[in-house]
Fold:
Amino acid sequence: MMSDSLIIILGYLAYILLLIILLNFNDTIVPTCKTIVRKIRSHINPLPQVKTQIADTSSQYLTQAVLLSKNIQGLHTITRQSQRKLIQLALPIQNENDESQAFIYEIYLEKLQALKAETAQHMNVYQQYKNAFYTLIKHSPDQAQYDDTAIALDDGFQALQMLRKGIGDALAQIQQKKVQLETQQLENAYQELVQPFKNEASLLSIWASYDLSEEASFWKDYEGLVTQMRKLRRATIQMAS
Structure:
């Protein structure tokens, strides 16, 4: 009898203990298990920091864009300097002496040719910047932030085009003035040579002055006349061409 009561009491105690364990399961055992599982997963397969990588990539693109923009601005500065040179070279100084003026034209043409070569190099540099820019925005995650750089690039191209056209126009104008001056010089020289031979009397005047007593002087004048005739022949050929 007493043995049965003990068994019943022990059964009640076991039941109560089971209830206590069940009541504390969610508060103690479950969180502990979840923590262990998270640690295991974190150790086996850590999550990549995607947002951080994108931010770093965008920052790198932006840094490249800023550097490219500075280079483009530097090209703008060089272009403006070339434009000021062009303004000076487009208006050569004037000299009353034709030979000096022809020399001045030649110097200005040489300087303009040098400026033209420099501008061609600047156009090549511009093309490199343009290629670098489009490569940059092609792979960039945010293309809208490069609008200012695109505008600066376009402005630089327009300035270089205007500079190249201005140099071409200045070269053509000065070359035309140089040709006109040379033509006028040739015309003046031709008229000076042909003047003594414009009438028959002038052609015969040297023979009319022949005097045996002054034969040496006569042949000197005669050689001078032959020299003038040769110059006239060369000038006539130049005028014809």
Notes: Confidence is low (pLDDT under 50) at residues 39-56. The first helix runs from residue 2 to 23. Helices lie at 2-23, 25-44, 50-89, 98-139, 147-194, 200-208, 215-240.
